[in-house]
Amino acid sequence: MRTAWEEAGWERLGDGVARRRMPGWDETIGVIAGSTGVMIVDTGATLRDGADLRRAIRGLLGRDVTHIALTHPHFDHVLGTAAFAGVEVFGAAGLSELLRRGKDELRHDAIRHGVARDAAAEAADLLVAPHHQVHGQLTVELGDRQVLLANVGPGHTAHDLAVLVPGRGGEPEIVFCGDLVEESGEPQAGPDALPRQWPGALDRLLALGGEEARYVPGHGAVVDARFVRAQRDALAARFGVAPS
After folding, report:
1. What are the TM regions of this chain, as residue ranges (predicted)?
2. CA distances from 210 to 39, 111, 138, 166, 207 (A)
């Protein structure tokens, strides 16, 4: 029998942990529920996406999101943030300043990728920059559950944040990777990527999660450490980085 989460389009990853692949750009949104707090990982490409996610999570859990973790500064992962009023927002060190000065670039990028002009402008104008910047690692308390935020970049961008959810009840760790890992296509190295540093970021990601973790890409199906390592090796070969 399908659960309420599955009926609403979410995939259960563990106790109190789920994710949703959004329509349009296939970006992954994560949710982590503790006894006193709820974290969402990334917020979608528009304010409407963010509002829909907020309502869906409230309907499924009976309470609101309290924390947001932004994995990197691309439009499809951050432009829904303003829909979550009063929520604590976390990002890699430097992300706040980048988002403050880069609103026009975000808006243009969203429009280039098919977001309606008015929707892109509204989301960029109201964009909320992180209140908390993660330099190394930071533990966030959600009541009976802790979540570890780790600044593992640079790689896909200069501000890549991973989210580790420790396993409980015999379940494996879960690592939300952002676009450091992609399963549904070749990893995208845009103009803001640091490709020669990307393999090193994946080494740090693997050290964070370990061999038994489930790795949740920014786009595509959940993968294992073997997949992440293969992608790391492919990126190293693609960009001429010596093996570690």
Report:
1. none
2. 22, 38, 18, 11, 5
Contact in structure between 66 and 38 (CB atoms under 8 Å): yes
Half-sphere exposure for 113 (CA within 13 Å, toward CB): 16
Q: State the burial class of residue 237 (Cβ atoms within 10 Å of its Cβ: 0-12, 13-18, 19+).
A: exposed
CB atoms within 10 A of CB 41: 29
CA angle 193–196–200, rounded 5-degree value: 100
DSSP state of 90: E
The identity of residue 183, as a single letter, is E
The Cβ-side half-sphere exposure at 222, using a 13 Å CA radius, reads 19
Per-residue model confidence (pLDDT) at position 37 = 98
> Mind listing the pLDDT tens digit for each residue in 65-86?
999 999 999 999 999 999 999 9
* Phi/psi at 176 (5° precision): -85, 120
Is the Cβ–Cβ distance between 149 and 71 less than 8 Å? no
Total-model pTM? 0.97
Chain centre distance of CA 216: 9
CB 138 within 8 A of CB 90: yes
CB 119 within 8 A of CB 140: no
Q: Which residues contact 48 (CB under 8 A, 6 or more apart)?
A: 80, 83, 119
Return the pLDDT at 242. 76
- The parts of the chain modelled with pLDDT lower than 50 are none
- Kindly give the interhelix angle for 225-238 and 198-209, rounded to the nearest 10 degrees: 170
